[in-house]
Design brief:
With 437 residues, chain A is an alpha/beta fold. Chain A has helices at residues 2-24, 47-63, 74-86, 99-109, 116-119, 136-141, 164-169, 178-191, 207-217, 234-250, 260-268, 282-287, 291-294, 325-335, 338-345, 360-368, 370-385, 397-412, 418-435; strands at 38-44, 66-72, 94-97, 143-144, 147-148, 151-152, 158-163, 196-199, 272-278, 295-298, 315-318. In chain A, the strands form three sheets. In chain A, strands 2-1-3-11-6 form a five-stranded mixed sheet. In chain A, α9 crosses α10 and α10 packs across α18. Chain B has one domain (78-303): MetI-like fold (Orthogonal Bundle), CATH 1.10.3720. Chain B contains 13 helices and two strands. Chain B has helices at 14-17, 26-53, 69-76, 78-111, 113-128, 131-141, 148-155, 170-195, 200-207, 212-240, 244-249, 261-271, 275-303, and strands at 55-56, 64-65. Chain B has a two-stranded antiparallel ribbon. In chain B, α4 (78-111) runs antiparallel to α10, α4 crosses α12 and α10 packs antiparallel against α13 (275-303). The longest helix of chain B is centred in the N-terminal third of the chain and has 34 residues, at 78-111. Chain B starts with 13 loop residues before the first helix and ends with a helix. The mean pLDDT of chain B is 87. The chains are: A alpha/beta (437), B mainly alpha (304). The interface between A and B is medium-sized, with 36 and 26 residues.
Chain lengths: 437, 304
C-alpha cells in the first residue's frame, strides 16, 4: 500500500509538472495563421483611407493575407457600403465607419461585428496589442448600445489655424476667450480689410462639425433630457447667433458653400487670418508656401462653459456578414498597432493611442517645426476633453445635421432671425425623432 | 428590235409554300438577348421602384407598406414644391439660352466654312468633359474670394458677385454653366440642319428683294424648326434631370435655392436613407420628363 501511494503521488506530481511545462510553452501568436486569404476593405478616399491603402502591402508581407483596398469618394463610399450591407453580402470584410454620424443606424441594422469578445481574447489577439493604450474616451466613442463597433484609427477635431504674423502686425495676440474672437475679428477687418478675418464651415451638411464646438463651449446641447431638440434653449441659441454673426460679419463672401476644401484653399492662399477647420487638414495647410512658418494652431478658445472641443475619429469595423472575420481582425490589429500608428502619425494622421505620442521618432518629427508641436498639443487637449456630439444623437442624424446647417445658413444670409430659425429647426427635427422610433 | 428581259415572277412551288415551319423563327433568337437586356435593366428596376414607392423603407430596416402615403406626403412637402420650381426655372432658363446661343453659333459656323472644321473641334471640348470636372472647374473659377471670374470683373471695374453662393443668383449661374457646356451640342445640330436646307427658297426670296433679316425670319427659322425641336427634346431630358453640376458645386444650397428634384431625391435616398420616399420622388420626376418630351415630340410631328 505504501508503494502504491508513492506511485500515485509520483504520477500526480509528474502530471502537474507536465501540464505546468505545457502551459508555459503555449504556442506564440501566429501572424501567418490565415496566410493565403484575401480580404476586401472598403475605404473612404480621405487621408485615412489613402494612407492605409499605401501601407497595405506591408500587412501582406507580415501575414500573407492579401488586402483588396476599394477606395471611393465619401458619398460613393457610403452608397456602396450601405448597398452591400443591406444585401447582407460577404463582399466586404472590413470597412471604415464614422460612428458619430451613422453609428446608431448601422448598429440598429446589425451591420457591425461586436469586437468586445475578440479584443480581450488572447488566442485571437497579439500579446503586444495593448488595447488599454487606447484612451477611455476614444474607446467609448466606438461603443454603441453596449457593442464595440470597431477600433478607432485616427482622432480629429476642429482647430483654429491662425496667422501669427498678421495678428502681430495688427497688435493682437491669439484670442484667449470665445467672446474675444468677435472683437479681434472686428479689429482685423479694419487692419487688413483685404483678408478674411474669420472663416469656418457654412455648407449645410458640414456645419455641425464646427458649430458643435461653439455650442459646447457655450454650455449648450442638442437634446433635452426628455429627448427633444433644444436649439431654442438659451445657451444653444446664443451659440447659433454667435457662429452665424461671426461668419456673416467677418467671414468670406459665399461662406454658405464653404467646407474644408475651400477653407484650406483660402487659408493656404494667405487670404484668411483665422480659419476654424479640421485638424486633418493640417498637412495640406502647412504645405502651402509660407504657411509652415507663419501659422499657429490652437483649440477654440473657451466660452462661458469652458473648452469642450469636438472630437471624432474614423474607426475600422468588421462587417457582420464578412466571409473572413478572423483574417479581418488581423488587419484591424495591424492597422491600429503601436508601430503602425507612429508610421501614420509621421504622415499627419493623429493617432488615437497614447503611446505613439511619446515614441522617439514621432516626438522628433513633432519638435522639428513649432507648428507641428502646437498641432499635437491641440489634439492632446481634444482627446482629453473632447465631446463626440457633432449632431443630435438620434437615428436619423444625417438629416438632422442638414436641417441644423440650413437653419444656421438662413441666419448667415439674413433670411431669418436666430430665434425663428432655431424654432423651425427644432420642430422639423422633433418630427424626425418621431419618425425614427 | 429590243429584247425585253422579263423576269419570270412565278408563285413559289407548292412543296415549299405548304411546308411547315421548322424550329423557332430567327427573329426570336436575334431579338431575344436585346429584349432580355431591356427587361432586366429597365423594366425590372422600374417595377421595383414602383413597389418601393408604396412602402416606407429605411436602409437597414425592412419595407412597411404605406400605400400612397409617400405621394400624399410629397404633396404636403414644401421641399418637393421647391424642388419642382427650381427644376422648372432652371430648365426654362437653360433651354432658352442654349437654343438661342446654339442657333447663333450654328449659323456662324455655317458661314465660316473654312475655319469651321477647326472651330468644331474646339467647340466639342466642353461637352466632351465629364460633368464632375466641369462642376469642379467652375466652382473654383466662380469662388467669390479666390476665383478668376471675380478677379477679372474687379480688373474691369465691375462689382464682384457671389455667384453660386447667392440664393438669388445660384440658379441663373447654374443655367449659365450648363449653357457653356451644351451650347456647342445644339450648335452642331443646328449646323446639320442648316447644311441640309434647300437653296431654292432663298434664291426666290432674294430675287423678290427680301432683306437678310426677312430671309432669316421667314425662311431659315421655319425650316430649322424640326432641328431646333430635336435639340430641345434631347436637352430637355438632361435638363429636367439636372444633378451632376449642382451636386459638385452647391449640393442644393445655399439653403434649398438650388435643390432640383433629382438632388432632393438623392438626398432622401442616399443621405437620409429614406428609399421609399426617394423612389416616389424619382417616379414623379420620370413622369414630368415623359410629359415634357411627349409634348415636344407631338409639336415636332405637327410642324414637320
Amino acid at each position: 500500500m505504501n508503494r502504491n501511494r508513492i506511485a500515485v503521488l509520483t504520477a500526480a506530481v509528474a502530471m502537474i509538472a507536465v501540464t505546468a511545462t505545457a502551459a508555459s510553452s503555449a504556442p506564440a501568436f501566429d501572424w501567418k495563421k490565415y496566410s493565403g486569404t484575401t480580404l476586401n476593405f472598403l475605404a473612404d478616399d480621405n487621408p485615412v483611407g489613402q494612407l492605409l491603402k499605401e501601407h497595405a502591402p506591408e500587412f501582406t508581407t507580415l501575414t500573407g493575407i492579401r488586402v483588396n483596398v476599394l477606395l471611393f469618394s465619401e458619398q460613393q463610399f457610403r452608397q456602396r457600403l450601405t448597398t452591400v450591407l443591406q444585401a447582407k453580402s460577404g463582399d466586404v470584410d472590413v470597412f471604415m465607419s464614422l460612428v458619430s454620424l451613422e453609428g446608431l443606424l448601422y448598429r440598429r441594422a446589425g451591420w457591425y461585428e461586436d469586437l468586445n469578445p475578440i479584443v480581450h481574447d488572447p488566442s485571437r489577439t497579439a500579446p503586444d496589442y495593448d488595447f488599454s493604450d487606447l484612451g477611455a474616451g476614444v474607446v467609448r466613442s466606438s461603443i454603441v448600445n453596449g457593442q464595440l463597433t470597431g477600433i478607432p484609427v485616427n482622432i480629429e477635431g476642429p482647430v483654429v489655424y491662425y496667422r501669427k504674423d498678421v495678428l502681430a502686425k495688427c497688435g493682437l495676440t491669439p484670442p484667449k476667450a470665445l467672446s474675444q474672437l468677435a472683437t479681434d475679428a472686428a479689429a482685423l477687418k479694419k487692419c487688413v480689410p483685404d483678408m478674411t478675418a474669420f472663416a469656418s464651415r457654412g455648407l449645410a451638411p458640414a456645419v455641425p462639425y464646427t458649430f458643435s464646438n461653439f455650442m459646447h463651449n457655450f454650455g449648450g446641447t442638442y437634446l433635452t433630457g426628455a429627448g427633444r431638440m433644444a436649439l431654442s434653449s438659451p445657451p444653444t441659441l446664443a451659440a447659433i447667433s454667435y457662429y452665424a454673426s461671426l461668419l456673416k460679419d467677418y467671414g468670406p463672401p459665399g461662406v454658405v458653400n464653404y467646407s474644408f476644401p475651400q477653407l484650406t484653399a483660402l487659408f493656404g492662399n494667405g487670404q484668411a487670418v483665422m480659419s476654424f477647420e479640421s485638424s486633418n487638414e493640417f498637412g495640406k495647410v502647412v504645405a502651402a508656401p509660407g504657411r509652415a512658418q507663419d501659422t499657429g494652431v490652437m483649440v477654440l478658445p473657451p466660452g462661458p462653459a469652458g473648452s469642450v472641443p469636438t472630437v471624432i475619429g474614423w474607426e475600422l469595423a468588421i462587417s457582420a456578414y464578412a466571409a473572413h472575420k478572423d483574417a479581418a481582425w488581423y488587419f484591424l490589429q495591424w492597422a491600429t498597432s503601436k508601430q503602425m500608428e507612429v508610421t501614420l502619425g509621421l504622415e499627419g494622421l493623429a493617432p488615437p493611442r497614447t503611446s505613439p505620442w511619446h515614441a522617439p521618432a514621432f516626438v522628433k518629427w513633432l519638435n522639428a517645426v513649432p507648428v507641428r508641436r502646437e498641432w499635437a498639443d491641440a489634439l492632446a487637449a481634444i482627446a482629453r476633453t473632447g465631446s463626440g456630439e457633432v449632431g443630435p444623437n438620434i437615428l436619423l442624424q444625417p438629416q438632422a445635421r442638414q436641417i441644423i446647417g440650413q437653419a444656421i445658413d438662413s441666419v448667415i444670409l439674413g433670411q431669418a432671425t436666430a430665434q425663428n430659425a432655431a424654432a423651425s429647426a427644432d420642430q422639423q427635427i422633433d418630427q424626425l425623432i418621431q419618425q425614427g422610433k | 428590235m429590243t429584247v425585253s428581259h422579263r423576269f419570270d415572277v412565278r408563285p413559289a412551288p407548292a412543296a415549299v409554300r405548304g411546308a411547315p415551319r421548322r424550329g423557332v423563327p430567327p427573329a426570336v433568337w436575334l431579338l431575344g438577348p436585346a429584349l432580355a437586356f431591356v427587361i432586366v435593366l429597365t423594366v425590372f428596376p422600374f417595377l421595383y421602384a414602383i413597389y418601393l414607392s408604396l412602402n416606407r423603407f429605411v436602409f437597414g430596416g425592412t419595407p412597411t407598406f404605406v400605400g400612397l402615403g409617400n405621394y400624399a406626403a410629397m404633396l404636403r412637402d414644401p421641399l418637393f414644391w421647391t424642388g419642382l420650381r427650381v427644376t422648372l426655372v432652371l430648365y426654362v432658363l437653360a433651354l432658352a439660352a442654349q437654343l438661342a446661343l446654339g442657333l447663333y453659333v450654328g449659323m456662324l459656323l455655317h458661314r465660316a466654312l473654312r475655319a469651321a472644321r477647326f472651330l468644331r473641334t474646339i467647340l466639342l471640348a466642353p461637352f466632351a468633359m465629364p460633368s464632375v470636372a466641369v462642376g469642379m472647374m467652375w466652382l473654383i473659377l466662380l469662388d467669390p474670394s479666390f476665383g478668376s471670374v471675380n478677379y477679372l470683373l474687379h480688373l474691369a471695374g465691375l462689382p464682384k458677385s457671389l455667384f453660386l453662393a447667392s440664393p438669388s443668383l445660384v440658379v441663373p449661374t447654374l443655367a449659365a454653366i450648363d449653357t457653356w457646356q451644351w451650347t456647342p451640342f445644339v450648335a452642331l445640330i443646328v449646323l446639320g440642319g442648316l447644311q441640309s436646307l434647300p437653296a431654292d427658297p432663298y434664291e426666290a426670296a432674294v430675287v423678290d428683294g427680301a432683306s437678310p433679316a426677312q430671309l432669316f425670319r421667314f425662311i431659315t427659322l421655319p425650316l430649322l424648326r424640326p432641328s431646333l425641336l430635336a435639340a430641345a427634346i434631347l436637352r430637355s431630358v438632361d435638363l429636367l434631370r439636372f444633378f451632376d453640376t449642382v451636386y459638385i458645386t452647391t449640393q442644393g444650397g445655399p439653403g434649398n435655392a438650388s435643390t432640383t428634384l433629382n438632388i432632393y431625391a438623392y438626398q432622401q435616398g442616399f443621405q437620409f436613407f429614406e428609399l421609399g420616399y426617394a423612389s416616389a420622388l424619382m417616379l414623379v420626376l420620370l413622369l414630368a420628363v415623359f410629359a415634357v418630351v411627349t409634348g415636344l415630340t407631338t409639336l415636332r410631328r405637327a410642324i414637320a
